[in-house]
Amino acid sequence: MKRTSLLTLYYHNIKNGIAQSMQFRADFAIGVVSSLFYSLITVVIQFLVYRLTHGFPGWPVEQMIVFQGMFVLWTGLRETLFGGVRELMVQIVWKGEFDQILLKPFHSGGYLLASGFDFSKVGSIAAGIVVIVLAYPATGAVLTIGGLAGFFGFLAAGVLLYMAFILFFCSLTLVIINSNRFIELMDRLFDFAGYPSEIYPGPARILFDVAVPFALCIGFPARALLGRFDVLMAAGAGAAVLFFLAGLGTWQIVMKKYTSAGG
Amino acid sequence: MKIFLAITKAVFKQSFHYRLGQMLSIVIYPLYLILFIAVFTGLYQYSHSATLAGYNLTQMIWYQGGVLFIGTITWNNTDWQIANKILSGDLVQDLLKPVSVFKYQLAVALGHRLLAMIGEILPAVIVLPLLYFPTFMTIGCILRFAAVAAGAFLLFFHINFLIGLLAFVMKSTASIRPIRVIIAWTLGGGRIPLDFFPPAIVTINAFLPFQYCFYYPIRVLLNMPGTNTWPGFLTILGAQAAWIAGLHILCRLLWRGAYRKFCAVG
Predict the structure, then answer these.
(1) Tens of pLDDT along B171-182?
(2) Which residues of A touch B170 (CB under 8 A)?
(3) Which of A12, B41, B100, B160 is deepest in the core (most CB within 10 A)?
(4) How much is the pTM?
(5) How far is Cα A56 from Cα A76, in angstroms, rounded to an integer?
């Protein structure tokens, strides 16, 4: 019998997610509007701050709008791809249903990662792309193949970093059961990606660019689009791969110790 | 009242059982603070300005600290709980309780916040003055803040209860909740002070309750002009009370109309 791959499973989950959204059409429509609204508000707030200040060093307002577009795109992307994973994990562990996942013919961590698709957040992806496309010409930057490749490469590395943190979160949930507050902790950590790393003092900047490279999510893809590469960015991408491997390793260790008990 | 307090106590004990989660605030809130401090220090330094929108750096950082306090005090998931119970049919169990659903949910929300106020606000209250000492703050303004923060809690609770009632019509209200958060936090001054907003938005805001959730309570905490006199403070408290009373009447009317349509078949 042909074995279904995780990608095929994810594809089916996307189809189910869309079908489910269509069941609650009003809720879905409002969800799309709300994600668009959130995207707009975020950009407007940044604009309001820039109106009364000189903004952040190294980021003129035109480039900052591209950064904000990237912020919106990143938020939409992570919520669409993996938006439901953490809540799902908390729910199934709380109810003692995690064993059911172990019966599935997939890598359990991969199965969880493939189960978090949330179609209602797709509006933010669209809004982010629109903001970037509209704001880009005013920056005066010239888009190159290298810049575009860097954009997608760093974005993929950012997604990998996020997947690593989800695996850490899921591992932790299996150990401590009630991990709701860790969702907030993870979100707060990723908040550091929401501002250009230039605002952080020297050591903190190295931390967020290379050691725990949150800048991969927003700052690096935006800088790649603007043609502002530096060597730290490649180091950050390498660190994301290591983080992902560490996430998988942690999951394996926790799975070996798992003894099947609910909340 | 006895039942109300018993529910609050039960929820408090339930929260206390998972105190490890609450203790995470010791890590989470300093993270918030570090981020605010980095962002606003950068903005003030790069703008070569001692004040922005009428706030000096210490006041701005304490404003963000105030957002944390108010966010913690007012947080509740009443809307989510009501919507879930309507969707699953579990609301029947609440209807059989010897208190109204409104009072039950209020007691639950209060129970959740009691531990949060100790475990979540305390770390920030200890850390923040060590980093930026609030010379502008007085015992009087802290007491006034306690009063308006309680008002903000009730205001938020009523807004959430109303959104929860929408589930009688929409069934799933998952998408409404983020809108509520975005509107309340943005127009309430929970992201940046309303002084950054253009006059047109400020005028529209005057007809909405959200600024009494964040902006004014935080200004009271900062002992800002217009809030540090009895007339100014009582105007804010009165406006909060008027909004709470209006929303409470709306809650009662809508509840009466909505629950009659409820049919517990999930």
Answers:
(1) 667 777 777 888
(2) 24, 26-27
(3) B160
(4) 0.83
(5) 24
